[in-house]
């Protein structure tokens, strides 16, 4: 039988990733390894922690200690992404909150010019779009290098106001689903 498609396999895999990342975090916190070292893919321990689905208070505490020790704005070698961009792209809300509280640069741009806000819109993570915008630190005038769109254009493309044009944080059809305006049959 194909175990890779089962829920239990995914839970086990997620649990193992969290445990492995937390082991890395503990090693960093006790001084057994450097926070700014990169693996072969060009990721630091902070970036790897940003990819975890850490939710428990213990996991979040360990991740917070790692964020205090490492460079939250370091960029990956491959695409120039930061830990915040990685957490945003993978929908890791708890890690996004931790990174924002650690003063991660919300306006950092990767090699294509994308920001964390653009990544959140592209991946349909409206709850994260809300967090980023509510931080009050997003520069919506930044432009990416690929589509030459400003951050505000990404928000406009994916967030359709329910209560009127002045409410960019309301989405349709649901609170966690972003749908491009052109895909809406009716508002």
TrEMBL record:
ANK repeats: which residues? 79-111, 112-136
Ranges annotated as spanning the membrane? none
Q: Which UniProt keywords apply?
A: ANK repeat
Protein's UniProt keywords contain Ligase: no
GO biological process terms held by the UniProt record = negative regulation of actin filament polymerization
UniProt KW Transferase keyword? no
Q: Which InterPro entries match?
A: Ankyrin_rpt (IPR002110), Ankyrin_rpt-contain_sf (IPR036770), KANK1-4 (IPR047184)
UniProt-listed Gene3D superfamilies:
Ankyrin repeat-containing domain
What are the record's GO terms for cellular component? cytoplasm; cytoskeleton
User: Mind telling me what this protein is named?
Assistant: KN motif and ankyrin repeat domains 4
């Amino acid at each position: 039988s194909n175990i890779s498609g089962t829920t239990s396999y995914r839970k086990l895999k997620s649990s193992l990733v969290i445990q492995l990342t937390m082991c890395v975090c503990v090693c960093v916190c006790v001084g057994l390894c450097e926070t700014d070292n990169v693996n072969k893919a060009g990721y630091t321990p902070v970036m790897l922690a940003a990819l975890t689905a850490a939710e428990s208070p213990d996991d979040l505490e360990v991740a917070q200690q790692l964020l205090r020790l490492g460079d939250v704005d370091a960029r990956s070698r491959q695409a120039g992404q930061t830990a915040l961009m990685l957490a945003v792209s993978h929908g890791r809300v708890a890690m996004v909150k931790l990174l924002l509280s650690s003063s991660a640069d919300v306006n950092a741009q990767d090699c294509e010019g994308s920001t964390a806000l653009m990544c959140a819109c592209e991946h349909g993570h409206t709850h994260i779009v809300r967090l980023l915008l509510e931080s009050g630190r997003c520069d919506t005038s930044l432009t990416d290098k690929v589509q030459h769109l400003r951050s505000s254009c990404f928000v406009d493309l994916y967030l359709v106001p329910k209560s009127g044009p002045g409410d960019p944080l309301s989405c349709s059809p649901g609170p966690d689903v972003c749908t491009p305006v052109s895909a809406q049959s009716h508002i």
